[in-house]
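User: Fold this; tokens only.

Assistant: Input:
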Amino acid sequence: MLFPKKIKHRKWQTMRKNPKKVGPATRGIKVSFGSYGLKAMTPGRITSNQIESARKAITKSISKTGRVWIRIFPDMPFTKKPAEVKMGKGKGDLEGYHAKVLSGQIIFEVDGASNSLSIESLRKGGTKMPIKTRIVARN
């Protein structure tokens, strides 16, 4: 699982801004390293567990022939309170890390495998994501 080595603050404030009002991404929207990429079509938060499960699905199907790049990093901590705890009594304990993804951002890139194998591996990785994704080719 991905997580930062060091963070300045252990617990962050929740970002309450509606990601649909922020608009599409302007950075990280082109396939830069590989020949095919997995692009986010809707905004959302992707946890480190979801990134890792998608990476495993992609690398397993692409085997040793290709290379995979992860273009997002989960650096934002999120907390969770235990079940059946009353309101108040402070913020919950650290549960994990997630990455904020805007629409149009490239999540994974693949290169070195055949076209059909690259597309199929990215499709399998896209099923692990909590957002809608699309497979794009390098221009």
